Amino acid sequence: MQCGLKNLPLGIPMTVASVGTLATLCAGKKFHVGFGIAWAALSFLHGWQHHKKMQADACRFAGCGEKKAEIVDPLKNIAASFQVDSYVPGRVRLRSGMLAANPQWKKPLEDYLQSFTGVKAAVITPLTGSLLITYDPEELRQKPKLSQLEQQLAELAAGRI
CATH says 74-160 is which class? Predict the structure, then answer.
């Protein structure tokens, strides 16, 4: 039976290191420092595992197969992950963990969104997973599907209040 780091549950390294550090408080400075160093190393491992898991989940959701950075239809693949943070006619801020986990999507998504009628700007902040879209409401509403999308966003934003 093979047990590699790949199959190790995310919380085990942190739990072992934290229990070891606490257990060695009375055992002497050398043991305590040793477990503290192990805790730091395992914290790094935990972060690395979590990052890899988020990338794999995002890729599986986006259906990107072997080419992880390629986005076939950017909005279609991640639309379900968006949360409406704020909305006023002409400005909407969306948030998605997938944007934070995939900074390589920034440019393709911004270009894609700016190709729509009435969209003035689309700015993604990968650090926070935030997407700010500014647009001309009157111009956007001339397209029935975009007008319907704006109405849905307004309803979602109103539900957050």
Answer: alpha beta
| pTM, to two decimals | 0.52
Domain ranges of the chain: 5-62, 74-160
Q: Amino acid identity of 54?
A: M
Q: Give the pLDDT confidence score for residue 70 in this predicted structure.
A: 47
d(CA 88, CA 90): 6
H-run or E-run covering 137: helix 137-140
At residue 136, what are phi and psi to the nearest 5 degrees?
-90, 110
Give DSSP secondary structure letters for 5-67: GGGS-TTHHHHHHHHHHHHTTTT-HHHHHHHHHHHHHHHHHHHHHHHHHHHHHHHHHHT-TT-
pLDDT digits (tens, 9 = 90+) for 4-45: 555 556 566 667 667 777 777 777 778 778 777 877 777 777
